[in-house]
Amino acid sequence: MTTVTRRRLLATTGGGLASLALAACGTDTSQRYDTGYVAGDGVTTEIPADQRGEPLSFQGTTYAGEAFDSSRLRGAPLVVNVWYAACPPCRKEAPDLVAIHEEYAPQGVGFIGVNVRDEAGPAQAFEKAHHIPYPSLPDLDATIMYALRGQVAPNAVPSTLVLDAQGRVAARISGAIDPSVLRAMLDRVVAE
User: Fold this and answer.
1) Distance between CA atoms of 156 and 145, rounded to whole angstroms?
2) What is the pLDDT of residues 50-64, one digit of tens each?
3) Would you tell me which CATH number, out of the four given (3.40.30.10, 3.20.20.140, 3.40.50.12500, 3.30.210.10), belongs to the domain 33-191?
4) By the 8 A CB rule, do 78 and 110 touch?
5) Global pTM?
């Protein structure tokens, strides 16, 4: 019969307890996590004009090197889409955003992307592959996300905001857009 040393007993017992603890704490996150993003839950919110908060203001330099200031676009609605290139629902919604941009840009609706993870190379490759006609701002240091705090969950990508002509949040979509929902939101804001 072999003698069990105190060290071996502690190692075996500790390893077994750690395994049990990890198994007990585990939850199935397969519906929530995919390649590093946390999917939005598809919640949509519209805010009546008399209940909207203060105008949002954020600035940056687009991947094309152009200065952007959201306050300069006041007077017309603005769609703000938070995305990054490796995000599967971002890729899925891209053609719908392009189509909606084409429909609403003639009505004066502006569009801006806010990329929360990518350097210029991957972001511009995504924009080229998906024929994105509007600019995006890199936000690797979360400066823009900080300006959008309380309106966009920092871990729910993609997310989309519709700002009214005064720059106030009129609607939001957490998760990939439903094109008919975004169109309805824009129709209401454009008609104001």
Assistant:
1) 11
2) 999 999 999 999 999
3) 3.40.30.10
4) yes
5) 0.78
